[in-house]
Design brief:
Layout lengths: L11 E9 L3 H12 L4 E4 L15 E3 L5 H15 L1 H5 L6 E2 L2 E5 L5 H11 L5 E4 H7 L10 E5 L2 E3 L2 H14 L3 E3 L4 E7 L2 E7 L2 E10 L5 H7 L6 E11 L11 E4 L4 E5 L5 E4 L19 H15 L8 E12 L5 E6 L2 E5 L5 H18 L14 H4 L10
Parallel strand pairs: 1-2, 1-12, 2-9, 5-14, 12-19
Antiparallel strand pairs: 3-8, 4-8, 5-7, 6-7, 10-11, 11-12, 13-16, 13-17, 14-15, 15-16, 18-19
Bound molecules: flavin-adenine dinucleotide.
Length: 393
């Protein structure tokens, strides 16, 4: 433990690890760190889960287009399947599988299926006829080819945050809520703590799990990592009686629109629709935009033929994909005493369990044996050696 700095008039406390952000990534890291025997302080500017982690579609997916994303999802899946046993709360996981669709058979979906199979994830390439035979409700769709991965689905993110936050609190983590990190304390090169709106906290390690604000924290630490937040919206359609519960999560890769059943005739619809606009995490509008709502319902009805352009909206919202310029996260020791675990774009929920374990490994061992995370080093932004994942949605 490093000694408390003697700063008169300022509240100071110390712990082994200070985690910035009580989103899914920060909470998962805190959980793994507590299990490894560390004392943990979580500094959160609002309440647990009030960032992007409760704005998701709840998606858990093995069907990615890069090895690193597949492996992170594979290693996290057991936690989702055993969540109730481990955290005492049912996350209501529903397995739908994912069906990626394309109107031209250019080989891209077959490449994805080949990657998944090579990593032990069952995935089939299906023709239009085979899709119609397997799911008769989908026989009016007009796609040349699909790739279907049966493992994956969605869960209730609110249950997940609640289960994790309660477990972490019971496990002894100190929560500093409604407390904003405003500075990073250093001793030479070494990060030694944080300065907040409610005093300073010191620790042997600081974890930047600030989601869409990870870039701000990086700058405070004197780093330049190209984090980018991008606006993403979702809506739930009601009375879409033709969306049965037993169809997969459908992804039209040509038009970047997706739809999944959401229980008794409702459907969740989302997608970039080709507009992947950066947005300001301190000044974005979290409400559903009328323009996007109209456009996505129009495209979903054309693509999947299960809903109408004027299907009524039960609810909708906007959030930010807290990403990087290449959509992959940064997971590394960025400086002595500083771990960065941020920039997960549309995968932060599904990858969080193993990310938490990797953060704990990096702090304890300086490395992880869970998997090769060299693709997630921020140095990739300097040398153009980047992994491309073509299935983000
Ligand atoms: C519409 C939408 C749909 C999505 N769908 C999915 C999906 O289906 N599956 C999936 O896996 N992912 C999905 N995502 C992505 C997912 O939401 C993110 O990857 C994930 O929530 C990132 O978690 P996080 O803990 O890094 O960030 P956050 O949940 O945003 O947590 C960061 C926390 O840090 C706090 N913070 C920030 N700055 C400070 C500061 N200075 N001081 C103190 N606290 C601070 C914030 O208040 C926040 O609580 C979706 C995202 C959106 C917007």
């Amino acid at each position: 433990m490093i000694p408390l700095p003697n700063v008169p008039g300022i509240k100071t406390s110390t712990s082994d690890v200070i985690v910035i952000g009580a989103g899914i990534v920060g909470l998962a890291a805190a959980h793994a760190l507590l299990l490894a025997g560390n004392s943990v302080r979580i500094v959160e500017q609002s309440e647990p889960g009030t960032g992007q982690s409760t704005r998701t579609g709840g998606g858990i997916r093995l069907a990615h287009g890069s090895e690193i994303n597949v492996r992170l999802a594979q290693l996290s899946l057991p936690t989702w399947l055993e969540f109730e046993k481990r955290f005492g709360i049912d996350p209501h996981y529903q397995e739908t599988g994912h069906l990626f669709l394309s109107s031209e058979d250019t080989g891209g979906l077959a490449t994805q299926a080949g990657l998944l199979e090579s990593l032990g994830v069952p995935c089939e390439v299906l023709s239009e006829e085979e899709i119609g035979l397997r799911w008769p409700t989908l026989d009016s769709m007009d796609f040349a080819v699909g790739s279907y991965c049966k493992i994956g689905g969605y869960l209730d993110q609110h249950q997940v945050i609640k289960g994790l936050a309660q477990t972490v609190q019971t496990g002894g983590a100190h929560f500093e809520l409604r407390t904003r990190v405003e500075g990073i304390l250093r001793d030479g090169e070494r990060v030694t703590g944080v300065r907040t709106s409610d005093g300073s906290f010191t620790g042997e390690t600081v974890v930047n799990a600030a989601g869409s604000h990870a870039g701000v924290i990086s700058v405070l630490a004197g780093l330049e990592i190209p984090f980018v937040s991008r606006r993403h919206e979702l809506l739930v359609l009601q009375e879409t009686a033709r969306v049965p519960a037993d169809i997969p999560w459908l992804i039209d890769t040509d038009h970047q629109v997706h739809m999944r059943p959401d229980g008794s005739g409702r459907a969740l619809v989302g997608g970039f629709l080709g507009h992947d606009d950066p947005d300001d995490p301190d000044d974005y509008d979290p409400t559903l935009s009328e323009r996007w709502s109209t456009a996505v319902r129009e495209q979903a009805s054309q693509s999947f033929r299960l809903s109408r352009p004027d299907s009524p909206v039960l609810r909708g919202w906007a959030g930010l994909y807290p990403g990087t310029v290449d959509y992959l996260p940064v997971l590394e020791q960025s400086a002595p005493g500083l771990i960065t675990a941020a920039g997960f774009s549309g995968t932060g929920l599904m990858h969080a369990p193993v990310v938490g374990e990797i953060v704990a490994d990096l702090i304890r061992e300086g490395a992880t044996s869970a998997l090769d995370i060299s693709a997630l080093q921020s140095s990739r932004f300097d040398n153009e050696q980047r992994v491309v994942d073509f299935t983000g949605f």
